[in-house]
Each structure stands twice: as C-alpha cells, then as structure tokens.
C-alpha cells in the first residue's frame, strides 16, 4: 500500500454524478414507493443508468468504463438469461433477470461516474449519512425481545427498521459498519469523521438488536479483515475503535440491557444448532436446494423459482415452504444452475485478485477505503453461507453500489501502474 499523500483533485459535478448521489440518498426509501412491479430504487437506478449512458454516447465514448472482473459478471447475467428456458413462471423469471441486469448496469455506472477518488468518497459519505438515518429508525423499531424456543433459536420482537426481516437489517448494518469504519480511519476533516463514527456505532447497535446470527458472523469476518489490513497504517484510530467497543460498548450494553445480553449469549450459542429454530429448519431447506440442483443442474429451476418449486415438487416427509435457500450459492445454483454458481465464484476470485493489486499500488487512503468496501462485501458473503437476504431490493442494490465503488478503486490501481488516472470525456 503506497503511503504517499493523496491528491483527490477537484470534484467535477455533472448530471450523472448528481443523479447517482440522489439514487444513493434515496436507497433507504427504495421500497416505500412503487410503479407496478418496480420499486423506487429500480426507477432511480434506471434513471441514473440512462442519463450516464446517454451523456457518454453523445460525447462519443463507450456507454461504460470496462473493468476486468466485468467479463465474469456478464457471463453470469447471460446464464441467468438462458436459465429462463427451464422456468415454470416466465413473468417472475423475466422480472428477476431484468432486476439482475439493472443491478449489473448500476455497478458499471457507479464505476463509470466515480472516475476520481473525490467522487466515490462523496458518494460513500452520502451512503453513510443515509445509513445513519436507517440505523436510528432501525433501533426505534426494536420491541420486547422474547425467546420462542429454548436456547434463543427463535426470537420475537427483533428490530427490522425499513426492512421486512431482522436478518436484512443485520446485513445492512454490517455493510455500513465496515464502510463507516474505513471512512472514520481515513477522514480528512472532523465533521466527516464524526459522521462516520456515529454511523459505525449506530450500525453496530442495530447489528446487535437485529439478533441476526449470520450478520454477526459476517461482521466479525469483515471487521477482522479490515482491522488486520489497516492497523499498520492507522494503528492509533484502530486501537481507539477496538478499545471503545471493548471497554465502553460491551459493559454499557450489559448494564443497560441485561435481558437482551442474555439473549445475545443464547443466540450466539444457537449458531452451532442450525435446526434450533422450529420455524426455519435450515438443514431440511438445504436438502430441498440440493434436490432442485440435481433436478436441473445446468440451468437450474429458473430465476426466482426456488420458493414455488419447493412447494410444487413431489416429496416425502416434511413440506418445504421456504422463501429462499438460506445460502447464497445454493440459491444461485438452484435457480440458475451450477454454471452460474461457478461464474459467481470466479467473479469473486478475479475481483479479489484486483483488490490485492489495489492494496499495493494506490495511496493508503484509497486502499483503506477499498478494504472497507471489500470487508463490507465479505460480511455479505459470509452471511450468505447461512442466509439469503439479497431478495430485498434495498440490500440488492446496495451490494451493486458497493461493487461499483470497488470497481472504481481497483481500476485506479491499474491506471496507477502507468501514472495515468483516467478523467474521461463525460462522467
């Protein structure tokens, strides 16, 4: 990681950039309004994509800036499109594919518009600001948490915030915690640092009151990665954050909310009992996912078809009524086939390779923010091993926005090899 000082450069404002900031700011309201089958987040994302593409085409440039990882992303989207052949519900499949294409296009648009470090830092600051409001509202939705089964395998009264499920709030909180943590480390002025610290603290609190075991695992993995990679260059602030969480945060929680603290302990222990929730039998759902994969291994059951297929298929024993497969890779393999799952793995591997190059080739400020983005995605990936929360539009497009920002950071690493920071004709 290069320790040279960073020249963020002037911020060049444009309609695509302003539209992108508006899209990010409106992300928490993504499902509040809808037009037919499309939510507000779908409409704002489509508007930003169209504005950016038209601006670049009129200027005589390509619609998007390319990224090496995008070839695997394109392959994944093509396989999703082909998997519509096997679907039992063409309308649901078409809607799912359309949203997937929209998400991929949004990631490339973020990469294209955020051509300078100043731009993607401003975009992430807007995301942190809106995430802070989500965290405040999320804590307000917390009820009287009670165990529905022995060992806290199932709880009622968990906070949900703007989402429909506590696990979704957990995912959002883990992602914002990583990004805000990185922003707090590299912030160049106190207002931004205070905002980032506030967002990180509130996100951590929401992570706890969501009682999402998968999100806890993801946040632990992401925080560990971020701390290990940044402590060398940001030792003072890293130690302050860890000390604040250990010396102040944990005792304060134990004193202020003793019933919840005992439930947190029980919830942690229930991680090792995947079938402890009587309303959510993961082992049986996993078996159903494997059955669907074996039935259509190449192209899967069709986009968006896991839940209806689990209800319609013939089986013996307990009936399966699961909205999703409780595993990101099983969900992809069941709906789009093992080829799609393999492409997803390759996409992650190539992006990880590009991230490692970024870590050694760009200034440490950019590298630290880049690792915050990587840690955020890692938290989603780890939670995705035991849950699937990306069916929520807010989370789905949040991940695409984070991917687009990471594209922008790693692209600058490639340009740094030749001392060329791309400015573009129209952004």
Attribute tags:
427 residues, mainly alpha, two-stranded antiparallel sheet, two-stranded antiparallel ribbon, 4 strands, 66% helix, disordered C terminus, transmembrane helix, ligase activity, O-antigen ligase
Helix-strand layout with pairing:
Blueprint: H1 15-25, E1 34-35, E2 38-39, H2 40-58, H3 70-82, H4 90-113, H5 117-140, E3 146-147, E4 155-156, H6 166-186, H7 190-209, H8 213-230, H9 235-256, H10 258-269, H11 282-295, H12 306-312, H13 328-336, H14 338-361, H15 364-383, H16 393-416
Antiparallel strand pairs: 1-2, 3-4
Helix pairs in contact: 1-2, 1-5, 2-4, 3-4, 3-14, 4-16, 5-6, 5-7, 6-7, 6-8, 6-15, 8-15, 11-13, 13-14, 14-15, 14-16, 15-16
Tell me briefly what this model is.
This protein is mainly α and 427 residues long.
Task: Report on the architecture of this protein.
With 427 residues, this protein is mainly α. It has one domain (15-416). Helix content is 66%, strand content 2%. The chain is globular and about 55 Å long. One of its GO terms (molecular function) is ligase activity. This is O-antigen ligase. The chain crosses the membrane at residues 12-34, 40-58, 70-87, 93-115, 122-140, 169-187, 194-211, 217-234, 241-259, 328-352, 364-382, 394-410.
